[in-house]
Write a structure and sequence with these properties.
316 residues, alpha/beta, 6-stranded antiparallel β-sheet
Amino acid sequence: MKVMFAGTPEFARVALEAIAAAGFEVPLVLTQPDRPAGRGLKLQASAVKQFALAHGWPVAQPRSLRLDGKYPEEAAAARAAIEAAAVDVMVVAAYGLILPQWVLDTPRLGCLNIHASLLPRWRGAAPIHRAIEAGDAETGVTIMQMDAGLDTGDMLLREALPIGDDSTARLHDRLAALGGRLVVEALKLADAGGLQPQPQPAEGMTYASKIEKSEAAIDWSAAAAAIARRVRAFDPAPGASTALGGESIKVWNAEAQVGKPTQPPGTVLAVTPAGIEVAAGEGIVRLTELQRAGGKRLPAADFLRGFDLQPGQVLA
């Protein structure tokens, strides 16, 4: 079976690697255009493009697939490449471009999407972050038959994973591996005519909106448990942050503790090598891994060697 692949970041690369390892033919890969990255802001190929080129696969990088959009010539060239590839199915994982109807209709078996949530919960752009932030006990991967809606297509395969105390970084890697395994299973079933699409339930839908940088600032008036979850949800990006004396500090690890602080939210209650205890709106937050601007992520004990922080100071 011939499989076209569309994806961009590391999450998608893991799936593409699994597809390749399973022996499927990949005549065309779509990925986002190269982007500036690093301190020198040099153009850098996506993780998917790097993997595809290493395997000698053709790569297309249109800025849009809309034939009537801003880049009609690029879309037309992509259409020609897609039609020439004559694939049986297209797999999509974190591609980053909207697929017009003509793309959905081109492969014989349509387009399969790897979505990092248990649909219909957390449709949208940031399902991993939002599941952690909301305190969900579990999440997972859904292989979905794509339609014109936003993550609204029929479910083909679905498997759950416990979240535990994972950060987005750690949970991302677990979900990426699961997505690669499930999409290979789905492709094998599709090849044998064994897929059984199931409509998404009408109840339980939530939307995972894109993470904005403005969300990074910690609201100390929130409950300690909510603050700790947001810290984990925003690792590795954008990173939760707080400020003292005008200096911004990233918080990479935090623990919620039971207690009824008598000080206002944001007040430093205790400073120990084990962590910095801060009053929250409800409970206490212990900060255990921090980073100054331009510095490295450090355990609290190491961070405090270069940062004078005293009980009674207030984080904003």
